[in-house]
Amino acid sequence: MPHYRDEGIILRTHKLGEVDRILTILTKEHGQIRAVAKGVRKTSSRFGARLEPFMVADLQLFEGKNLDTVSQVEQLASYGAQIVADYPKYTAANAMVEAAERLTRESSNSQQYLLLLGGLRALSGSEHEGSQVLDSYLLRALSLSGWVPELGNCQSCQSENPVAFSVHTGHVSCGECSLPGAVKLGAAGLMHMRNLLAGNWPEVATVEPGAKSNVSSVISAYLQWQLERGLRSMSMVERA
Predict the structure, then answer these.
(1) How many angstroms separate the CA atoms of 223 and 168, rounded?
(2) Among 57, 78, 99, where does a domain finish?
(3) Range of the domain at 13
(4) Under 8 Å CB-to-CB from 164, ≥6 apart: which residues?
(5) Which of 23, 48, 78 finishes a domain?
(6) pLDDT per residue over 131-184, tens digit each?
(7) pTM score, two decimals?
(8) How far apart are CA 4 and CA 106, in angstroms?
(9) What is the number of other CB atoms lying within 10 angstroms of the CB of residue 133?
């Protein structure tokens, strides 16, 4: 049976039998995989605590017909404790890993892995507001999946002063042009979206609460439109 080694982020777990667990993992080189961790629910398990959601691990796995099998685990980073201890961080992290799972089911690359890794690290370290880390992650993850929002000039007339974003097309429009599903965010709201997409955190930190809330709603709607259904975790996300 062929075996391989990769580093991965634990996205989700669920019980299998009395002592085993099935893991959904986003790996750096092999994309999203599902693997069995045998005996990890035993109190004597050597690596059960290393295979919880938000954990980053160096894994050795055996390739199986339907499910791979985890044989060795070395913990690389543990973001779980800091995230679980803070409810806003926890809800944001849950939405991030659910989005990652949905976006990488068919195909993935190391960029998706590194993006999620950076997002979880930022959440655990309280580098930025949790909900804004989530919004930035969602825009970037959608872009890596091919749904890049076009936030420059108005799609119709090329005006340099757009004020609305269409969740259906991913383009912006000015006050004179109307695109399907366009939501008026104003210049400040669209600039906030650009800053989130670019990771311009000093500017993100200064945005007004109203613009922040409106942009968060639009990003959630854009994600839902592209995935054809929303994320269950988004309803639990705490916004400042």
Answers:
(1) 10
(2) 78
(3) 3-78
(4) 172, 173, 174, 175, 178, 179, 182, 183, 184, 185
(5) 78
(6) 999 999 999 999 999 999 999 999 999 999 999 999 999 999 999 998 888 999
(7) 0.92
(8) 20
(9) 25
